[in-house]
Amino acid sequence: MSCELLTVPEAMAILKVSRWTLYNLIRSSEITSVLVGERCRRIPASALDAYVTRLCEEAA
């Protein structure tokens, strides 16, 4: 099974949001993330896809 994990700066660039906004989305569980080791936060690309899909569905 393969799952692309993005760094925080990569996810920020894809969503075009600030670090503060991305971490708030993670804290509020709107976007899921994982810790690799003790300090490396990674965001599954599928989590960004799911978030954008939800936003589009809510806007419709």
From TrEMBL:
Enumerate the spans annotated as Helix-turn-helix domain: 5-54
* UniProt-listed InterPro entries: HTH_17, SinI_DNA-bd
NCBIfam families in the cross-refs: excise (TIGR01764)
Q: What is this protein called?
A: Excisionase family DNA binding protein
Source organism: Nonomuraea africana
